[in-house]
Structure formats: C-alpha cells, structure tokens
Input
Amino acid sequence: AIVMSVIAILMIIGTGTIMMLGWKSYLWPDQEGAFIGMAVVFVLLNFVVEIMTKMMDAYALTIPFEWVRVMVRGTCMALLLALYGLGFLQLSTYFIYQYTFMGLIIIGSVIIGWRTNIWQGLFKNIMTFNAMVKQYSVEFYHYVHPLFIYSLIALFVGILDRWMLQYFYGGVEQGLYSLSYQVSQLCFLFTSSLTPLLTREFSVADQAKDRHAMRQLFRRYIPLLFAITAFFSCFSCMQASNLIQILGGSQFDASLLPMMLMVFYPIHQTYGQLSSSVFLATGQTKLYRNIGVVMMITGVVLGYILIAPQQYGGLNLGALGLAIKMVGLQFISVNVGLFFNSRYLQLNMLRYLAHQCGVIIIYSGVSWVISAAVSIYIGLPIVSFIVSGTIYTVVMGIIIWSFPKLLGLEKSHIQLMLNKISILTK
Output
C-alpha cells in the first residue's frame, strides 16, 4: 500500500506537469501530435485510477468506492449527452470529458481514504519505512520482477499482432478486428471488477494458511463467473450479424466471422483473470510469468501463420486469423494455468473442463435456436436483438433454476441470492 501511494502521488504530479505542457501548441504543431499528447495524459490518469481502485479493494472499501463511481459516471454521462446535444463532441472534448471523469474518481477515492484514516495510517508507516526498506525492497523485487518481464513481453506481442495486421492488410482489416474486439469486451464488463476482490480473498486465505477456504472460493466463484460471462458471449455470437448492423452498419459485414469468434474470448479471459488471482495471491509470480511467456512466444509464431498472406508463408486469414489465434491461445493458456491451480488446491481439473464445455454447448444451442426463430419473424436488427435477448434470458433462467450446476451452485444458493435481491429492492 505504501509503494502504491508513493507511485500514485508521483503519477499525479507527472500528470499535472504533462497536462500543463500539453496545451502548449509549440510542442505539438500538428493536430495528430496534440491528440497523442492528450492520450498520454489519459493513460497516466487511468493508471492513477487503477491504483486507487486496487487500494480501495485492498482495504475492503469497495462498496463506498463503487457508489462514488456510479454517481460520477451518472454525472459524466449527463455531461457527455450535453456535449453531444450541443454539437461540441469531438476527440479533444472527449479527452477532456475523460479527464473530468477520472479526476472526480481520484478525488472521491482520496476523500474516502481520508474519512477512513487510510492516508493517515500510510503516512505514519512511511515515517518508519526506512527501518524496513531493505526487507520491503527484497520482497517487492522478488514478487514484481517476473510480472515486469511478463508485462514487457505482453506489450511487445500485443503491438506486434496489430502491426502485422496493419502491415499486411491496412486499416480495413484493423477496423474489422477492432470492432470485434470492442464488442467482445462488453461481455467482460460484468465480471472484470470482481477479479481484485477475489485476489484479496485468496490473499487473506493464503496468509492464514487456509487452503480449504481457498478451495471453497475457487469452487464457488470461478464456475459462477465463467457461466455469467458465457451467458452474454454465447448470445452475442448468435446475434453477431444484428450487433454489426446496430454498432457498425453494413460496411462492417466482413467482420461477421471475426466477431463470432472474438465474443468467445472474454469467456476464458474471465477464467484466466480469476485463475491468475490464485498465482498472484500465493506469490507464484514466476510460474505465472513462465506460463505466459511460453504461450506468448507460441502465439507470435501462430499469429504470423494465421495472419500473413500466402506469399509470405501464411494462411491469409487477416482479422479472422488474429481472432482464431487470440481465442485458441487463450483457451490453452487458461487451462494450463487451471492445471497448476488444481494441483495446488487439490481440485479435480476434469470437472472444470467438463463445466466449460457443457456451459458453452448449452448456452450456444439455446441462443442459436431462439435467434434463428426470432429472425424469421422480425427483420429489424435492434428489435430482433431485444426480443431474442428477452426470450433467451427467460429460457436460460428456467434452465438454470432447474439445473443450478450450470453456475456451479445449489438451489439453496440461488434462493439465497434471490432473497437478498428482494430485500435490496424493497
């Protein structure tokens, strides 16, 4: 927490400096350069927000912090609509809108920290930090340096994938893949915020040497969150053509196959992030790095073969090839990580593999039947999407109530959740 606080303070100072310099037109005489500078400020502010989010989660202040986020997001949404309605919405004003949003989040987290005496406690710890600096430094280095190497390689591989797509095919294929990727990330929104919370709970259990509690957390939440993500992803796959018409229009029709594949990416992205929380919570960062590096190096070779044109020795698949690489490699790497976690927590890996396959098959089958039937009678994309989604939700609700094992739960667990929702809505 001390290290995070120091980094946050330095990043805020650095961000303020760059923002003051960024408005000087002589630094960026062209408009594109100004946007690059504004994007740098955006990244730095976003980094500070992520640090604050992790600190709030680490101190079990998630609920008040999320209330702040909801209120800020609602206020900023009104600001965004106002900018659009008045005709002022362009890239530069959108950056300012994002600065406002993130700035309010940072201010809100600082207020929460001050009211709960977090900052006061941290400042007291800093005063005695010199006596423990060696111990902290060694511990921090051993934990972080594998993750630093992993992040560098991940950054390089991510840029290389996009560069190959741009170099061989230009902006068209890049746009097709980008739309597919952005739609896939919508399915990930519902579970991504729970990853740091689970990491914290795993860390607490590991610190107490309570392997049983860690097993219970894994059994309870990993299948549940996997199934929730799959609920949205499988439906999005069967509704890919409607989503393209709603979000992009007919000029993006060629992104149909990449989108149908990419919406499956967040299913195992969820599994990967939640499973990786076990590695991070138990200090197995070297193993986490080694698995990731091997998979990324394999992915570079596989990506080239799938993306590159035939005259360069590839299969000439473009955006579709990159989608195949991303989804396929994600599935393999997640299940390799699952193997090590199952061995560490003494769980049955085959049970989780069967759950993955069963959930995807059932969700996809139900959504395909419903989407195909509705499309016969309704041709308007947005109406077809809404009607199909409503029927799909009702049917899957009945199936899940009858077979709660799809969520890795018992009927008593579902009844308990329904009771809590009923209490909250009263």
Summary: The mean pLDDT is 82.
